[in-house]
Fold this protein.
Amino acid sequence: MTPLIEVHELSKAFFGIAAVKSVSLSLNVGETLGLIGQNGAGKSTLMNLIGGVVHPDTGTMRFKDAPYAPHTPSDAQTAGIAFIHQELNLFTNLSIAENIFISQFPRKGLLRSIDRGAIRQQTRDLLASVGLDLDPDIQVDRISPGERQLVEIAKALYQDAALIILDEPTTSLTARETERLFTIMGQLRSGGKALIYISHILHDVHHLSDHIAVMRDGALVAHDPAANFSVNRMISLMVGRSIEQLYPPRTSTPTTDVALSVKNVTTAGIVENISFDLHRGEVLGLFGLMGSGRTELARMIFGADAYDSGTILVEGEPIKKPSPRASIRSKIAFVTENRREEGLLMGIDIANNISLVSLPDFARTLFDVVNQSEMLDSARAMANVLQLKSGDIAEQPAKALSGGNQQKVVIAKWLLSRPSIFIMDEPTRGIDVGAKYEIYSIIDRLAAEGSGVLIISSELEELIGMCDRILVMSRGELYGEFPRAEFHEERVLRAAFREQDLPVLPVQEPSSAPAGKEEV
Amino acid sequence: MATLREPITPAPGLTRPELRKPRTNASISGWIRRFLLSNNFVLYLTLIFFVVAAIFLPSLRTPGNISNQLQNMYPLLAVAIGQTFVLILGGIDLSVGATMGLTSVIGAVVMAQTLDPTFFDKSPLWGTLMRPEGGLLAGSDLAVPIGVLVMLVAGTCIGWLNGFAITRFNLAPFMVTLVTSTFFGAFALWLTQSRNISGLPEAFVNLGKGDLISIYFGAKLTSDIARREIYSLITYPFIIAVGLAISAQFILSRTVFGRRMFSIGTNRRASEISGVPNRSVITRVYMFSGFCAAVASILYSARLAIGQPSLGGGNLLLDIIGAAVIGGTSLFGGKGSVRGTFFGVAFFVLLLNILNAMQLSPFVIDAVKGLFILVAALLDITRTRLLNREVRA
């Protein structure tokens, strides 16, 4: 059988640096190819070559048994290749039906007006085929990220795409939405579509794919049936050497000194009567499903969002007027979930990013003049400690860094203010395996030096790998507490889903779940 | 507390990727790149523009014209500096024109030495602050210092009002300053019933044109030199505007406040989380913009020797924002410099000078001005793209 798509020795360089090096791949009808690699390994460039976004320097492609050399993304679309990006490409101000038919509206009558009836009916059929029961006239900004993902797939089906490329489609999906997406992908596959699935979640890739291709530094380092891979082998191929451990060993144990004490913090409809202590030298995990209130709680503790009642004490002293500034004065640091929007000044140089929080420390004279050389020295020292891989930090803007290095800049910024409490919301989101390990090492070191670290994460494995204790949030309440000795993935998850009766925390009133709240 | 003295260990199996060396450009395209990317790009452009234009328009290169054009720059520079600050924050201040008009009137009401009843008896201030024998402090020795002070305070207050409304009620700067612009513009016209107030004291007028150093190119041994052969070089407006520019550049590039302005302009939410006092910084920047508008108002009013309610009207706002944008300040915030604005103002004044010397109609002049702002914005996008490539490559 001739493969649906064949890529032959494709190469592409940007500014003399090879992004894709002589990659050859093929994919048959009805097959799913999992494509993995660290950030910057060349996955996106390879997909952009197939999608006609960039053009190869050398090499050829064949699609449907004919030479294929797309000049524009629309060439690829016409040929039958659909590209579903990480950031969705739907027009949120248009309806579902309009989005699906945007490139070619069916017309009718003398005035060549859009045949609304026809597109509505066709859209309904398309949505049904991806398991969505939605009104075609609903505006896209009113449906969830998971539903949008499926609408994109419906759009690909309408364009009769033979090959559908999905780039990190689950990043913003809830567990249930992800499950639904996988079911649909299975159906597409049995319906004869070829899929290319790109993801950092290796279990998913392993589970979904027939073949797995691993890229490293632009080259294809492995391309085998999925059965030949274990998650461990996938990781070692991605990093080029085997990583014995995903997590560095913990080098310290928590003390009994309370660093941060949260007492009865409540905000109607978001978090309910939350109380816990964070000790010095402790790495405390906060686990919860999306919408459980974990991120909201972290923001309240830091003073980024207001809360209705309750107290937050740092070293026994209550924070009176909560605000980020008050928290910074109390030596709390907050690594937000959203690097791009709340963590970094993307267009500004790394040094000024690192010094932002502790800027007043570098100013001594009457006019608050910044001591530039002292600031640069401190920033450089911090960049060095965190092994930041960058150019000149006084020149290079933060946006020119990879995700892992950007996260290091955020951490460096807070380290410079010498905090005693670290709150980290999804500290390893969107960064590759190697950088994750380094972030974990930093967390371990912080605890060893006496800081209290609170990690909020939706990756349970990472919490089990790093924490001394895990708290579970569910529907705005603390619903379980697990010391390290009792870590058990399934039990923690059950607590998050409230599917098991568990020992309740002392401060918490049981069965006070507010009615009518959305379950994730 | 947390210090982390020693470097962390990288994950096993990972090595540091080699950093790329910047490309060296010996070719013509490399030369063009460096020219485009230079901080002094607009200055070079202005100089080239001047040299080329001076060949075809001899009137341009007379010492009289050069001296005159330099004097034209200073008031515009003063107000454009304030606007640059606001733009760096990602805001905009549309009220500077109205601020200039109102402060001009207020200053004149304090200082005027005589007021003509036939003009002003309809003014709401007639009989109280405005009398036939002059303004509030007419004839007093303190009239000029207090008048100037009142103008500066009034400008700063309007700026505070803008900043307060923007930070306290989370209103869009465009909306707030449009409202204050309309309101105070109308207020200034109402106070004087749309008339200019003349009769300002000599000491004040001197602020607008007083020479400190002048140049004379004629024969050495003449005993009396005609005034028109003396060309002003260093004047009070020069001292005031350049002093303001240097202070502003200092604030912007050297102080904590300056860094915080850029950080707010780049990402307001990240700044807030990082403990930047957003509200206070924003409010103070709008106050500074109002202050700068008042300085410009002093320079213009003194030069014209009148208090003019419509001082900042017409196309002045376009000139102010245009000069800042030509100087590389981004309307999206987070980018800009006083030096750039200085060059932008010089470019704008020269452009206007050339267009006038070509004796074009005012309509054509405005159209060309608009076109140049567009070209500047496009060039800025190109430069940003080149710069980004530089850091990524």
